[in-house]
Please model this.
Amino acid sequence: MKLNYILLISILFFSQCIKERLNPYDAGNPQAWSSTNLDVTKYRNGDEIPQVQNASLGYLTTGAWCYYEYNSANGAKYGKLYNEYAVTDPRGLAPAGYRIPSNQDWSVLIGYLGEKKAGHKMKSKNGWDNNGNGTNSSAFNGLPGGCRESNGAFSGIGANGNWWSSTVYYGSDYFTFYDTSCYVYRYKTSYYANGDFFSVRCLKD
Model:
């Protein structure tokens, strides 16, 4: 379906490190996405989410978060990285009134922005390697925060940004921007080795 281009209107709310923007993508049917990466240390019910602070904890099977290279300075810029078990925990990773976006939610946003240019419009205006900065015309402000791999290694800061989807089917899906591309790519973690840590955005219910 061809969608008419409408400039995204940004509005700010503050709720547990959430900033949201209104995206009127079609005939008054809005999506309100956070414009910064999630930065919480507790589940919605108040339970603490364990922090991974060193490489001795490689593959995990419970919810956890970490800073890129365990450095809080990276967290101040890129937010926290979460594993799949935190994203899917029934206690809720997203604050009250928000949810982790599904594949369908991502598809709506990408379709509105235009598949061939969505990544360019969603990437931040600075911080990307290889002259890969975006226009941020969507106000998504996607930063290249990299990831922690299931073996405990870190990679990708400056070169890619990765965000979880709530969709789970034989592994969890996630969406990636690259410094050298204008597209948004969808991938799936391994059903048997899904210990990666990625960034998280939230969508208002």
Notes: The longest strand covers residues 160-168. The chain has one domain: 20-204. The two ends are 24 Å apart (CA to CA).
